[in-house]
Design a protein that fits this description.
- The chain is of the alpha/beta class.
- It has helices spanning 37-43, 85-91, 110-123, 136-148, 162-170, 182-196, 209-213, 215-223, 240-254, 275-281, 308-318, 327-341, 347-350, 352-361, and strands at residues 3-8, 14-15, 31-35, 81-83, 95-100, 128-132, 151-157, 174-178, 199-200, 231-235, 264-270, 321-325, 370-375.
- A six-stranded mixed sheet has the order 4-5-13-10-11-12, sandwiched between helices. Strands 8-7-6-9 form a four-stranded parallel sheet, with helices on both faces.
- α8 (215-223) crosses α9 (240-254).
- The longest helix has 15 residues, at 182-196.
């Protein structure tokens, strides 16, 4: 479409578009897609959006797929932005919203990234896709690979929520359960991918999942009439959604849709796995691997994120912060959000509420702020997390 090239997020090295890439060939860091935004804005205008399709592909000119017939879609994106008035009253904040990603296909925000990644894999000729996953990414890849007619190989920790495992099996994937964490699963994919002929679609180890996730930022701006919120609170494992939104804000500014004001970006992690929080508090740009990672919020159990520096850069540039919450706090918040607003959050999404309370107590969120909490998935997939509550 309007893609000009791929660019290393760390060293800036330019890579050719329309070829299968994983990481930067020089420094091994993530690649980001760059567009001719002057050309894109000729047809992609605010005025054109109301008549467009009601999914993430409404922003077609800033999506990477060249040919429309390569788009692999199940209707992902354009999820509700719900005014959470009771939570606003409870926290003393003027405006609180929930961006509810549980209504995506496969019931999580991972559908956005996998739609884009699988579409590009199809366009660029990949036949076999592989991913390590804590659960929801696996379900999304399995569904989109099936939709595209591609083979899919999933590696998940043995204690992944059962719903995610069944979902992958029932959508035709080859599923391997492993002892250990998502990092161990990723190492297994890395060891075998060349011999097996797999294309690795791990978080930020290919350039296109972040392009699907960035549509969160476009939607948020559109749904708030092009006035970004003061604060975005985002549950962070690999962090692709936060990185994607930050990229989207820059693209929208370049096209003249928004000004230079940015939300304060807040990363939320589980106390039992908080590498980004620790790096932020220690003033580091890169996060050390978090030892003995453990949390019931499986999507937050990512002890080492390859995009750590991109998350930390966005937090610091925006004047935001990073906060850890306990499993007890996030499970309790799941019930509180459900009872107050009727949204059955994934534990990861529920973590945003205790984080908001900590921000209020620390004086980092003002009562007149507009705050958006991201619910990244459906609580229905986490039955094991609620068995003892």
């Amino acid at each position: 479409m309007n893609v000009t090239h791929l660019e290393c997020a760390l060293c800036g090295l330019r890579h050719e578009a329309q070829r299968l890439h994983n990481l930067c060939r020089e420094c091994g860091k993530p690649l980001l897609v760059r567009y001719d935004l002057d050309r894109a804005k000729e047809s992609l205008t605010k005025e054109s959006l109301p008549s467009r399709r009601s999914d993430m592909w409404r922003y077609r000119e800033v999506m990477p797929v060249e040919r429309d017939d390569n788009i692999v879609s199940l209707g992902e994106g354009w999820t509700p932005l719900l005014a959470a008035r009771r939570l606003a009253e409870k926290t003393g904040i003027r405006e609180v919203y929930i961006k509810d990603e549980s209504l995506n296909p496969t019931q999580s925000f991972k559908a956005r990234g996998m739609s884009a990644a699988v579409s590009m894999a199809k366009e660029l000729g990949a036949k076999k896709l592989a991913v390590p996953s804590a659960g929801n990414a696996a379900g999304a890849l399995s569904a989109y690979a099936a939709r595209a007619g591609l083979e899919c190989f999933i590696f998940m920790p043995r204690d992944t929520p059962r719903a995610n495992v069944v979902e992958c099996e029932q959508t035709g994937a080859s599923v391997t359960l492993m002892d250990g964490l998502i990092t161990d699963c990723g190492a297994e994919v890395g060891r075998r991918k060349e011999a097996e002929g797999w294309f690795d679609v791990s978080t930020l180890k290919e350039p296109y999942r972040v392009e699907g996730k960035k549509t969160l930022g476009y939607e948020l701006a559109e749904q708030l009439n092009w006035e970004l919120p003061n604060v975005i609170i985002y549950p962070t494992g690999g962090g692709t959604g936060l990185i994607g939104m930050w990229k989207a804000f820059d693209e929208m500014q370049a096209m003249g849709w928004i000004d230079s004001n940015r939300p304060r970006m807040v990363t939320v992690q589980a106390a039992g796995c908080a590498p980004i929080v620790r790096a932020f508090e220690e003033g580091k740009r890169f996060a050390d691997e978090f030892p003995n990672a453990a949390t019931t919020a499986s999507g937050l159990r990512v002890p080492k994120a390859i995009g750590d520096f991109l998350i930390l850069d966005a937090i610091r540039q925006s004047g935001g912060t990073a906060i850890a919450v306990t499993d007890e706090e996030l499970i309790s918040a799941t019930r509180e959000i459900g009872a107050a607003e009727g949204v059955f959050c994934a534990p990861e999404g529920a973590a945003c509420l205790p984080a908001l309370r900590k921000l209020v107590q620390a004086g980092m969120v003002d009562k007149n702020d507009r705050v958006v909490l991201f619910n990244t998935g459906s609580g229905v997939k986490y039955m094991e997390s609620f068995e003892n509550t």
